[in-house]
Amino acid sequence: MSLAFILGQKNLTYDPTGLIGLYEQHQAVRDAYERAAEWTGLDVGLLLRTVEDDTQRSRTTSVGLAAAMLGITDLLGERGVHPAMVGGISLGAMVAGALSGAVSRQDVIGLLGHTDGDQRPDRAELPEGCVAAVLPLGETYESFYGTRPGIWFGGDFGMHTSGAFRMLLLSGYRDAIDQLATGYPPEYFVFSDETVAVHSPLRYRARDVLARIAADITFTDPVVPMCSSLEPRVLHSADQVRSEFSRNVVEPIRAEYLTGQMRRLGARLGVILGPTLPRDGFEFPFPVVYVDSPDDIDHVVAAVREHDVLLPT
User: Fold this and answer.
1) Which one, 1, 6, 81, 98, has least CB within 10 Å?
2) What is the model's pLDDT at position 69?
3) Do residues 225 and 99 lie in contact, with contact meaning Cβ atoms separated by under 8 Å?
4) Whether 52 contacts 21, CB under 8 Å
5) Nearest residue to 47 via CA among 73, 58, 277, 8
6) What's the pLDDT tens digit per position in 188-217?
7) pTM, whole model, 2 decimals?
8) What sequence ranges are listed for the domain Malonyl-CoA:ACP transacylase (MAT) (predicted)?
């Protein structure tokens, strides 16, 4: 009978309208953005809105969405809504580390502002990218797409609410991904604006940079249980959370690892923070409510009551 906070991935093309509304209407959200701006030196206006400049886009989006998730957490806290467990996917995994109490918010925001500013392929002559790919029901990644040079399995977001397919993340060299896509219907692939091969071995340099910085950051054992999306386990120690941060850069993510552990811990309702996962896009093993606009706050409070969720004090 517990509440889970679920934090999703970096979304380079999200609509900022709802977050701007939250910022304008709620001091808790403004405070989160203003602290993030102070800690990184980035302008609040850039953090609130998607930008077109590729040299800044990745970093401002990461920091801005992290600030949004932290601000929404504080806003829900003012309404007495606190999570019994947390967990995230990609960007969300790092922010979940802060919500679990394992690392400070300032350190997470600073880490994102530092490491996400250097988003470029290791080899400029080989552009990288990633794509969301349909996996029809009954197929496996190996049997359907097989092993192809220059492409890696980057993640599994789970079953679509239609029940007809799963949505995968494929990551690697852009020319290899483009060649793969020519053999399938165009609706099977949704290309990302990412210019790096996220959650693939090609990110090993970024992993090493993040690991070096994280080594100087203070981590403690989580106070709130933190569920992993890299393997089916709950993180209980400071060392496990620190390792999760660097592994998160190069290893594939699986939504079912995250939500499966939450269900095992007794999650009765999930709250998805920010515009980081498609609304009503994927199946969950428990009801979920999305929060990325002012009207959603009352929806969360109503859902907590409807599902008879026991909130931690």
Assistant:
1) 1
2) 98
3) no
4) no
5) 58
6) 999 988 889 999 999 998 899 899 999 999
7) 0.94
8) 20-308
- Please check whether residue 89 is in contact with residue 9, taking contact to mean a CB–CB distance below 8 angstroms: yes
Name the token pair of 100.
């679990």
Share of the chain above pLDDT 70, in %: 95
Name, of 142-146, 179-183, 211-215, 284-288, the range with top average pLDDT.
284-288
Tokens encoding 56: 């800044």
Could you give phi then psi for residue 175, rounded to 5 degrees? -65, -35
**How is residue 139 annotated by DSSP?**
-
Give backbone dihedrals phi and psi of 91, rounded to 5 degrees, phi first: -50, -45
Residue 28 has φ and ψ, to the nearest 5°, of -60, -40
CA dist list (Å): 313 to 55, 99, 198, 306, 310: 43, 15, 37, 19, 9
- CB count within 10 Å of CB 98 equals 21
- What pLDDT score was predicted for residue 119? 57
Q: How do beta strands 165-173 and 234-235 pair?
A: unpaired
Task: Give burial (CB, 10 Å; 0-12/13-18/19+) of 215.
Answer: exposed
First CA to last CA distance, the chain: 14
The DSSP code sequence of 171-191 is EEEHHHHHHHHTTS-GGGEEE
